[in-house]
């Protein structure tokens, strides 16, 4: 709690950062040169010109922000924190295999080969990658096998995460009304949300994450929506990265995926649909009307050959008012790199250099992300009363010179440079490019050992298109 200093004028706060350039993302999108941020009890107490803030506040933890640019902590709307991080160098699929073969013969066996200790290490690895890139909040993709181990790994890092165990309510070996499988899926969603309850202070909480595509029947979707509505949670699901999803829904429901989900009443502001490459104009209208969020993962779309530059309707979604967030998916990239791609893909696709400027891309990983996770009153901007989630970037580097438009430049800085310092709810979890919580050298050693064991258990062959001698 703030206390008055002995001089009776300045208030004591936990942390005072001064001298920085601050991209506030407030209502008028102010950028404050020589600015300051006062942090107390995990919240932003004040932000403004350093000359004003330092007259009103003092702190034992004073951070020299000169030569730094500060942004709100970023939101990664969709990331597989297990399965991919420890096996990123293993090429999925053999020549000629289609998307379904890659999933069933490569991706799923690798996920299933993770033991609890592997998933904990993987979660820590993912958390470090995200924090180092300025991400303070993420939503997992719904492919966790060992939730307790993952929760432990995430909590140890300090990042804020919304996670959920792997839930499949459709038994493809039986008929679509296999009640035992449905009941088990619903029970899992309910028990997870009870064990890892979402509160205002919980950094790790469980949401009803449904994987998506075709793996959960209507009964599970309806139960997940009730659970989300009653407890202030959100739903996330993959949908329509390829034509196979619309084809399946048309064959089995007579409607396209988004149309069917709207018909059964499970869309809305607390629902996030990931990929949405193969949606038509009517589905865009539904997404806008229901205020359903869409998460686009540019790298996954390009790597997976989704065809978004030729058929993707993301500019039309934005024009219709759909809240577009960004995610990194299972690709080894940082969220700023996803934002960089977003500024270019659809300029080329529409032959229009004005589509998705840098300002909109930055909004997608701050304000839009906060809105998607239903924390728009707490995250996404540097304003008094908001959670003190901050990413601090060192501009005293060659790639930042000369400094003019900081929004444009933060999206052009080379990938891998990362954030110098990161705060989550006022706690400095990255300091001078190093974690304050995790022994990163030990983590790297654990990753090497764990990754080799996973590939051996999965029984997949590590192959290269070129000879390795």
What does this structure look like?
It is a single chain. With 469 residues, the chain is an alpha/beta fold. The chain has 2 domains: 3-72 and 382-434, Urease, subunit C, domain 1 (Roll), CATH 2.30.40; 74-372, TIM Barrel (Alpha-Beta Barrel), CATH 3.20.20. It contains 17 helices and 21 strands. Strands 3, 4, 5, 7, 8, 18, 19, 20 and 21 form a 9-stranded mixed β-sheet that branches. A 5-stranded parallel β-sheet has the order 13-14-15-16-17. Strands 9-10-11-12 form a 4-stranded parallel β-sheet. Strand 11 (160-163), helix 5 (179-195) and strand 12 (204-206) form a beta-alpha-beta unit.
The gist of it:
By secondary structure, the protein is of the alpha/beta class. It has helices at 50-56, 99-112, 116-132, 147-157, 179-195, 218-231, 244-253, 257-263, 281-290, 298-303, 308-311, 314-320, 335-350, 358-364, 367-372, 406-410, 440-458; strands at 3-4, 11-12, 15-23, 31-40, 43-49, 57-58, 61-64, 68-72, 74-79, 135-140, 160-163, 204-206, 209-212, 235-239, 271-275, 293-296, 324-326, 390-394, 421-424, 427-431, 434-435.
What's the topology here?
Blueprint: E1 3-4, E2 11-12, E3 15-23, E4 31-40, E5 43-49, H1 50-56, E6 57-58, E7 61-64, E8 68-72, E9 74-79, H2 99-112, H3 116-132, E10 135-140, H4 147-157, E11 160-163, H5 179-195, E12 204-206, E13 209-212, H6 218-231, E14 235-239, H7 244-253, H8 257-263, E15 271-275, H9 281-290, E16 293-296, H10 298-303, H11 308-311, H12 314-320, E17 324-326, H13 335-350, H14 358-364, H15 367-372, E18 390-394, H16 406-410, E19 421-424, E20 427-431, E21 434-435, H17 440-458
Parallel strand pairs: 2-6, 3-7, 3-8, 9-10, 10-11, 11-12, 13-14, 14-15, 15-16, 16-17
Antiparallel strand pairs: 1-2, 3-4, 4-5, 8-18, 18-19, 19-20, 20-21
Helix pairs in contact: 2-17, 3-4, 3-17, 5-6, 8-9, 13-14
Keywords: Hydrolase
Protein name: Amidohydrolase family protein
Family: Belongs to the metallo-dependent hydrolases superfamily. ATZ/TRZ family.
């Amino acid at each position: 709690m703030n206390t008055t200093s002995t001089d009776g004028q300045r208030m004591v706060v936990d942390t005072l950062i001064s001298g920085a350039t601050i991209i506030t993302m407030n209502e008028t999108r102010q950028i404050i040169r020589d600015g300051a941020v006062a942090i107390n009890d995990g919240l932003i107490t004040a932000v403004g010109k350093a000359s004003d803030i330092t007259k009103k506040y003092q702190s034992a933890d004073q951070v020299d922000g000169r030569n730094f640019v500060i942004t709100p902590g970023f939101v990664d709307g969709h990331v597989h924190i297990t399965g991919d991080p420890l096996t990123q160098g293993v090429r999925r699929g053999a020549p000629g295999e289609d998307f379904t073969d890659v999933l069933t013969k490569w991706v799923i066996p690798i996920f299933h080969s993770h033991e609890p200790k592997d998933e904990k290490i993987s979660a820590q690895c993912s958390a470090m990658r995200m924090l180092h890139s300025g991400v303070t909040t993420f939503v997992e993709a719904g492919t966790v096998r060992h939730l307790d181990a993952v929760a432990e790994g995430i909590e140890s890092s300090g990042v804020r995460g919304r996670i959920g165990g792997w839930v499949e309510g459709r038994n493809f070996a039986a008929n679509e009304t296999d009640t035992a499988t449905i009941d088990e899926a619903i029970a899992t969603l309910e028990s997870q949300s009870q064990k890892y309850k979402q509160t205002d202070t919980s950094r790790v909480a469980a949401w009803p994450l449904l994987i998506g595509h075709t793996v959960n029947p209507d009964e599970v979707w309806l139960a997940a929506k009730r659970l989300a509505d009653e407890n202030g949670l959100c739903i996330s699901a993959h949908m329509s990265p390829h034509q196979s999803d619309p084809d399946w829904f048309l064959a089995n429901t007579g409607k396209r995926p988004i149309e069917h989900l709207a018909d059964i009443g499970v869309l809305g502001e607390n629902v996030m649909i990931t990929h949405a490459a193969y949606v038509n104009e009517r589905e865009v209208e539904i997404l806008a009307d229901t205020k359903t969020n869409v998460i686009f993962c540019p790298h996954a779309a390009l790597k997976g050959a989704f065809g978004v530059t030729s058929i993707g309707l993301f500019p039309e979604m934005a024009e219709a008012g759909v809240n577009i967030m960004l995610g990194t998916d299972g690709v080894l990239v940082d969220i700023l790199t996803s934002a960089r791609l977003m500024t270019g893909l659809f300029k080329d696709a529409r032959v229009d250099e004005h589509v998705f400027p840098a300002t909109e891309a930055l909004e997608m990983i701050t304000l839009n992300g906060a809105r998607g996770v239903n924390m728009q009153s707490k995250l996404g901007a540097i304003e008094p009363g908001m959670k003190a989630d901050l990413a601090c970037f060192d501009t005293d580097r060659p790639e930042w010179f000369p400094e003019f438009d900081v929004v444009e430049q933060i999206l052009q800085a080379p990938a891998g440079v990362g954030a110098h310092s990161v705060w989550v709810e006022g706690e400095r979890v990255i300091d001078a490019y190093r974690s304050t919580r995790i022994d990163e050298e030990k983590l790297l050693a654990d990753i090497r050992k764990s990754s080799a064991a996973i590939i051996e258990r999965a029984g997949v062959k590590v192959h290269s298109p070129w000879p390795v001698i």
